[in-house]
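Hey, resending since the last one bounced:
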Amino acid sequence: MKVQHLFPCHIQMSKFEDKDFDNLWLEVKKYWIIDTDAPKAYMRKWAIRLGINFRHRLARDYIYNATPDTKKAYKVYKFIEIEDWEEFYKQRTSEEYQEIREKAKASNAKKKHKLHVGRNGWSGMRRKMKTVWPQLESSYPVLKGILNKRSKLFIMGHATKDKDTKLYSLDDVAIEKAGTLVNDYVI
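The structure tokens again:
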């Protein structure tokens, strides 16, 4: 929450200076009673990610998917100043930003390897490996030759779960990639 409070929404995370992150670090260090500065770089990376995600949610929920009865973001998030919100709204609705947004959407639509790791990410995939991998291996014999755990995770990340059968399946591109992973490790 500190990131949302300390970094105004209308300024991009890349525009903040080191002193802004130093102030955040001092507050985090004091709150969590941290003696060393070792996690400072890690905290900065997460602060940037949190700030970007928050701005994305603001734009998604209060600009792009807003309905007439949607409250203004500054009424929901009391720490957002009205002037900051108006500036953020202008930025996100500008023609320049819309062009960037459409270009990013088009680029994303071209991806052949879409990941399906879900909310838990790669660590969640690791936890599911004992159940998902045997099912994939029985459905796709080409996978039996893959021994490397990272390669298995990579393939599992491209598997989609059928809602009706509860079974995982791979698209043709993922199966083709699996074949190359087998060939890479054959001695």
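The CA atoms of residues 11 and 88 lie 8 Å apart.

Sorry for the duplicate.
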